[in-house]
Amino acid sequence: MTTRATRSPRRRTVVALAVVLVILAAFVIRLVDIQVVNANGHIADSRGKTGMAIALHGGRGDIVDTNGEVLATSTMLYNVQIDPMLAAKGINETDAAGNIVYDDDRKPINVPWPELAAQIAEVTGQSAEEVQAIVDEAVAVDPNKRYALIKKAVSTEEYRNLAVLGMPFLSFPQVPSRTYPDGAVAGNILGFVGSDGEPLEGIEALQNDCLTGSDGERVYQRGADGVIIPGTVVEDPAVEGGTLKLTVDTDLQWYMQQLIAEETDRMDADWGGIMVVEVATGKIRAAAETATVDPNDVGASEPEDRATRLLRYSYEPGSTFKPVTAATAIEQAGLTPYSTVVAPDRMVFDNGAVINDSEHHATQNLTLTGGLVTSSNVALSQFGTTVDPATRLEYLQKFGVGQGTDLDWSGEPDGVYLPTEQWDNQTYYTTTFGQAFTVTVPQVASVYQTIANGGVREPLSLVESCTLADGTVVEPDLPEPERVIEKETAETVGLMLENVFAQGTLADDIKIDGYRVAGKTGTAQVIDPGTNKYKNNIFFTSLVGYAPADDPQYVVIAVFNEPMKQRMSSANRSVFKKAMTQVLTHYRVMPSESETPLLPVTK
């Protein structure tokens, strides 16, 4: 039987237990609030007081050539930061095992700041007084000062030597740095990055998605003496950028840069360039020009020399596009290499247009082959206008006029042309010999790659692949090869271009012993931006061809802007021959096993 006396202690026990449970529940709720609900806020508060967060930079990926030779790479430098408040107090001396050394009175021996400053200065190359003053001045302004900079961007070796000193008040934030081991080699193509690491030009900018790494962070807690508290380090690792592989061959690129620099100077030209394209693939193996830039020292170059002119300069191609007219007439008008026209050196057409050849000559009965060999504007005007304007424009577009290239280079012009309804009497004829529309050097190279490749255009490319940090290889998304003209047409035009080299006025100057070579010169008038008229006796000269013509392997185009010593395309014969000879030698291309079959020039 329960009595009042027995109920009272039991009630008190229940009440006490209830109170304990309430208190315990409150603690649990608070614990959950601290550790779960508001954990991030509390962590942030603790970091602000005793925590450190150090950025870990994902290094920018390397750029390598087609053989894997490094053209651009990232190195990690380090800023040397110091906590002035802690440094001013000095640190306890330790022995080789890291144990604190005591004096006779069992007091820790303190190493004063001036002595520590001398140790730091010995590594950084500064004077002890200079390092000491950085902390002394900071503490003089604010005794609780927690940040000062000892030195910017020290090397990895210096960083390691400083870290070995074991001074807890030193920290070493990473500073990514970009270097180019081969200096100016391919500099105009590679581009460069700014002091903040942002890409500013060239491949560095265009392929930034591949090259850029992802930053991480290292977070840790430290005690009042600056020492890291064991077990508090949490790291979110950085991810390195991808490795970008180019189509460029560094050794060939170096040679072409030396060659074009010498020849541009010899011809007293405004600038010059050489491009080498592999016929079967469309890969650009060299793209050299003057002047070039050393991405390690961009400031040493004039602003106009820090990008690539070779990929951005737009011009009227002149005679280098006459083979396009020949191909059009062969496919659409049934002409052959033996088709003829009467060609004086000056002709007034029925619509009043007047067309002149570059040199005076007697009236000739030229074949289509002869029109290319002698580079007769009068002959090509007659051959070309056997096809209606709309079809002629269609073929120009098929060969890339107004279409740009697949390089997708920033600032690369597509090229301009007039719709046929805007062709005046003169334009009706000048479009047959490379005037009244514009192209770029890569577009001209692409035309000859197409002819050399049996009429199939391979997209031009400068990038082979991007290998990501996890090993994934990503290749560029290029369009499929495209048939532009029939194989038989390409072979016919190619044979005529061989005859240009074999029978033309420059034949002896550009002959390469043992190899059949096909190609064409071009002397394009240059527009004066001030007057919008052609400059008087000033030209953009070019010579483009491929070899071996019986088994085409490589296209070479050499250009000069406004050469003064020789103003016509004859200025390009030496540089083209040297460039093509080097290409054939470099790639150990086998000589031709036959001679060029000669076609009649006149009838």
From TrEMBL:
Predominant location category: membrane
GO CC terms in record: plasma membrane
Top-level taxonomic group: Bacteria
One GO term (biological process): cell division
Segments forming domain Penicillin-binding protein dimerisation: 58-229
Listed GO MF terms: penicillin binding
Keywords noted in UniProt: Cell cycle, Cell division, Membrane
Subcellular location: Membrane
Residue ranges of every copy of the Penicillin-binding protein transpeptidase domain listed in the record: 272-580
UniProt similarity note: Belongs to the transpeptidase family.
Name the record gives this protein: Cell division protein FtsI (Penicillin-binding protein 3)
Species of origin: Microbacterium invictum
